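Support case: fe (ii) ion complex. Customer-provided input:
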Amino acid sequence: MKDLSATKLIALVGMCDGKEQYLAHLLANRMDVEIYSIKKFYSHLFEATLYPDLCFLDMSEDVSRSFMLLGSLKTLNIPTICILPSGIGLALELRCLSGGAYDVMYWPESKSEILKKTDFIFHNTIFEQLVFDKHVNREKHVSDKDNIDTLMHQILSSLSVSIDAKDSYTQGHSLRVALYSTILGKECGLDDESLTLLHYSALMHDIGKIGMPDAVLRKPGKLSDEERKIIQTHPTIGYDILKTITLMPDMSLVARFHHERWDGTGYPDGLDGVDIPLYARIVSIADAFDAMTSERSYRKPLTFEEAGKEILACKGTQFDPQLVEISSDIIQRYISNGKVLTFDDVLSTTA
Ligand SMILES: [Fe+2]
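Agent response - structure generated as follows:
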């Protein structure tokens, strides 16, 4: 059985209004205390890089995501104290307890009560079993992770082929957009974990096209206003398809926002500037670059150099100006002595 005298790690998750500082100050001299947003905590759980001994989860902000997280914590046998706003009523308390909370606490709570609840959990015999189960779970979780990553990559790659198969002129489009996005993301300094999420998000950016009629999607000529309106629903359709994948919210956000423009004239929501999520801004450039350098029924593909100039011309209007600068540097690097590199050249450069 786990050595219970070892230093305990307490995670404070999704806190607001200074609760995290208060609790960290109160508990820090007795245990290790770490503070996380719900999103960051989720990604640590998913990556199996964090197994706290006790979790304080604030239920007053993002209630639906907090309950989803509570379910995951229950599955992983991580004891959790839910923090509820005072005067909220019994219904939420019962929902927390039936959803897997070890205990609840109404805020503000006195120091002595907080310490009493914490000590009670650590000295309860049930805690020993929870810790034991948790470490058994952890070993299994870590050993399964490599297989899950491989499976995830294979599923999304084959799904991207299905998306591109809707249109004979977009074969390999999603894979190339994922590749270009990852190159750009890497140049932006994203870490490996973020690059993986960006890669998956880019693979799925056009998944909403699965719901588009073939007659519109494969129409060789110019689209009518009515047909354009139909095509412009693919970001929201994609968002609706992907939004249930709550462990990777970036996928649904990229699907929804990859046709937004920096100047706010894009669709579907007319977001502008940095309100457009970073991954969507990256995929937007990669998407346009691949569209321009791929063959279409009505035009020949542009060279990398020509497409690079087009991207530069849309700096600050369609695209994030900083990302355009970084993209231009990358494209220049791939064009040497008047020779335009092929996709395979790009691939081998990043391998
Ligand atoms: Fe799209």
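Residues 165-350 form a domain with the Hypothetical protein af1432 fold (CATH 1.10.3210.10).

Case will auto-close in a few days if no follow-up is received.
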